[in-house]
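Researcher: We're reviewing a set of sequences before deciding which ones to prioritize for further study. For each one, I'd like a predicted 3D structure that I can look through quickly. This is DUF177 domain-containing protein. If possible, include the structure in token form so it fits the rest of the review sheet.
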Amino acid sequence: MIVLPISGLQDGEHPFDISVPVARIPDLLSEFTGDVHVQGTLTKHEQRISLQCTVQASARLECDRSLEMFDEPITLQLRREYVKDTSRAIEQGAGADETEDVIAIREDARHIDITDDVRQELALSLPMRRVAPQYRDVPFNELYPDLADRDAEATDPEVVNERWAALKKLKDI
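Model: Here's the predicted structure for DUF177 domain-containing protein, in token form for your review sheet.
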């Protein structure tokens, strides 16, 4: 869990630096390895607390092109606004409303748990195309020329499958 203590916090900026093993973050995707590092600042002004932090983690991914495993560093910025308001916190219930810009917490709260926010943001930060760094600047046809040649033959307009001939006629009209 990633918990930030706020009990007795004075007005002003309060830097923090936390490292948590991925095993201690419940339901974190299995791609993440090592530690999750959270570094940032809590800024308190009367009943408002602003959180600004950088989250860093490492993900072990399989390359879509070569099927090699590689480690991808994931870095993201996380910002949240909290207000100490017990009645509003009770209205929100156990979890904060996702559409709210400001999350209400109880006035007697001793800490802010950002575990769910970090887990969700890390999951959303994983790349959709997982390509190892050594293959990112290499065009696919250079990496696999035999497949590129075969693909070029398959898309040759002269070689039209008979099943698609009727559709080709419609397209040409």
